Amino acid sequence: MLQQPLRPPNHTHRVSKPATTTIAVVIVNFGAAELTMAAIESVLTRVHGGRQVELHVVDNASPGDDAAVLAARHAQRGWGDRVKLWLEDTNLGFGRGNNVVLDYLGGRADPPDYVFFLNPDAELENEALAILSDRLDATPTAAVAGAAVTLPTGQPVTAAFRFPSARSEFAQAANFGPVTRLFRGDLVPLPPNHPEGQVDWVVGAAMLVRFQVLRDMCGFDPDFFLYYEEVELMWRIRQHGHDVLYVPAALVRHAEGMCTNIKSDQPVRERRPAYWYDSWRLYYLKTSGRGGAIRAGLCWMAGAALNVPLAALRGQHQQMPKLFFRDFSRLVMKPLFLGPGTR
């Protein structure tokens, strides 16, 4: 169940809205204090086209001394009111960590026009906030604008996507040329050189969203702990008639997977954590219903089963994660058929 809607502003004490567009940047940290501080500095050192920008940094009960390190750096650098720290005593996960700030912003008399979600392992490479804000200012039908992403090596990576489907799950799990070509129009990742324009969803590591739309959506769905929460949010946004834009002129460098140890180019036999499978199941349940989730799950398993002999014949690694069939059956298919709590 979604949380209660974000608190509306106090209309009795509303102050006049400044002419300049206002942006709140939200970074949720977990065990990556040094990277988070670099992300903060990448925002503070830009001019953002004269826009008013505030930063909110949520430490999600990080292990070690992250909270103390962030607080000390806040004082040393004299960040003052430009950076507000939220030091949580529980790891809320990504979506709920962001919702802490969204709820606060919704209770203010002067909420921002836009919210920019920035991963702690990401940094602005140019005036990305100004570029993304310009696009949303010029496109009233759009609610989200996402930046292009490069690795620290400078290699561009996919940052715009189609929504997942049963067909895409089968094709990507099979990893077989004829199947891939047959379902080319269903594959989730769009090419890194995809042109500017409307897409289904953009990478959550660097996306600008209209605050009023976030309020209407009640923020991120708190049922998700980590992964798929931004996809589900943009699915709801699209369902409500808003567009999502990919804007490759805005550039962000992303040290992918530094906080979660899950990378798009990691060895395929790495095992996925349980919360990843939980999020996959929740996404399909919420967007396709139980029947659609079961179809997508069966298609993924069928594609993975096809990949086993194909990979052996080609002398390649199997496509699915390590212990996939055991984990997927227990964490996804069993709860879908028998109900939650039946692992």
TrEMBL record:
Signal peptide extent: none
UniProt EC number: 2.4.-.-
Pfam family, one: Glyco_tranf_2_3
Database matches in SUPFAM superfamilies: Nucleotide-diphospho-sugar transferases (SSF53448)
Key words of the record: Glycosyltransferase, Transferase
Transferase in keyword set: yes
Gene Ontology MF annotations: glycosyltransferase activity
Enzyme class: transferase
Domain of life according to the entry: Bacteria
PANTHER family documented for this protein: RHAMNOSYLTRANSFERASE WBBL
Protein name: Glycosyltransferase family 2 protein
Organism: Sedimentitalea todarodis
